[in-house]
Design a protein that fits this description.
By secondary structure, the protein is an alpha/beta fold. Helix content is 36%, strand content 23%. The chain has two domains: 8-202, Peroxisomal Thiolase, Chain A, domain 1 (3-Layer(aba) Sandwich), CATH 3.40.47.10; 212-349, Peroxisomal Thiolase, Chain A, domain 1 (3-Layer(aba) Sandwich), CATH 3.40.47. The chain has a five-stranded mixed beta sheet with strand order 1-7-6-4-5, with helices on both faces. GO terms for molecular function: acyltransferase activity, transferring groups other than amino-acyl groups.
């Protein structure tokens, strides 16, 4: 018997590190590290990011010190593994599953890497069967939440149907470098944050009822590699963030999303509030302009950005978790933009049948 045509989302769990920092504190730290007050225009840009607070892997003073690749790797190991195991355990518990029920662990992360991978280490520390497949994926960046769901859904439909644990972990703060005070790095410092999310997706015919993924799509545009990504620096990954993403949303993303919805037999008015990776405040504005007037606002996306900042790949899962608490009765569009430059889309049908 083949797996379900449309794999079902069984659960979502989210977590953040212990160290909370307000946006006002971030601006004060930037000024302190710079040794002078921020230029008024830059302070206005950073203050209008749509973020009120964020969570970091380490105490703020950690980021004002010189750090090496081994320093950053040790933090990724210590904090990242703790968060990954926490959300994995919670997602399985919410899905009423144990490690023995999981056929494969998909791990999405672009802000650190380990060999053996975190999923491989979870097999021993969390008691997964030794035959559990591990699929660590590096490089999806901010698009990784939706692309990870697509990969997990494809795997869930393998064979007679499988249970897939998806873990999305990003410690964006490990790329902060206060020795560089160009506009790009200061904007990145004011946007990016740390967080982790997990989801269980099942393609087994006997899985419990739940929202079903009915379709996915993605597109990578040529000559856009300078929009977002990593370069290898002296002490870690250095952010590439060059072009105007809000303009890209209106010019390139909008017609791509229009075609996807048409292919799915959906109009904007047929949708519940979308779950969007927020990027930043101006990106959320551009997305709201695209969805209007049929969808008045993307409140959950704004709320997650305000409370958690841009955590890269797990952020859209935070938004989706928020929306599903309200029990939407119409399809939910998921959107994300990331390195490539790539757009990832999905439709989740929340009807439990």
């Amino acid at each position: 018997m083949p797996g379900l045509k449309h794999p079902r989302l069984q659960s979502i769990a989210t977590a953040v590190p212990d160290h909370r920092i307000s946006q006002a504190e971030v601006l004060a730290i930037l000024a302190r590290a710079r040794g002078a007050a921020l230029p008024a225009r830059l302070e206005q840009i950073l203050g209008n990011s749509g973020i009120d607070q964020r969570y970091l892997a380490c105490e703020p003073d950690y980021y004002l010190e010189q750090r090496s690749w081994p320093d950053r790797a040790a933090c990724y190991d210590r904090v990242g593994r703790t968060l990954a195991e926490q959300v994995a355990a919670e997602a399985m518990d919410r899905a009423r599953m144990t490690p023995a029920d999981i056929d494969a662990i998909v791990m999405i992360s672009t802000t650190g890497t380990m060999t053996p991978s975190i999923p491989s280490r979870m097999i021993e520390t969390m008691g997964f069967p030794s035959s559990t497949r591990t699929v660590p994926v590096f490089g999806y960046g901010c698009a990784g939440g939706v692309l990870g769901l697509r990969l997990a859904s494809d795997l869930a439909n393998g064979g007679e149907g499988q249970n897939i644990l998806l873990v999305s972990l990003e410690l964006c703060s490990l790329s902060y470098d206060y020795s560089q005070f160009d506009k790009k790095n200061m904007i990145a410092t004011a946007l990016f944050a740390d967080g982790c999310a997990a989801a269980v997706i099942s393609g087994r015919p006997d899985c419990k009822p739940g929202p079903a993924f009915r379709g996915f799509e993605q597109k990578t545009w040529p000559d856009t590699r300078d929009m977002m990504g990593w370069e290898i620096g002296q002490t870690g990954f250095d952010l590439v963030l060059a072009r105007d993403i809000p303009t890209f949303v209106a010019r390139d993303f909008a017609p791509f999303c229009d075609r996807f919805l048409e292919e799915q037999g959906l109009a904007m008015a047929d949708l519940s509030e979308p779950a969007c990776h927020p990027g930043g405040g101006r990106v959320v504005d551009a997305l709201e302009n695209y969805f209007a007037p049929e969808i008045a606002a993307i409140t959950a996306t704004r709320s997650v950005l305000e409370r958690y900042g841009n955590m890269s790949s797990p952020t859209v899962l935070f938004v989706l978790e928020h929306l599903l608490r309200g029990k939407p009765d119409r399809p939910v569009l998921l959107t994300a933009l990331g390195p490539g430059f790539t757009s990832a889309l999905a439709i989740l049908d929340p009807r439990e049948d």
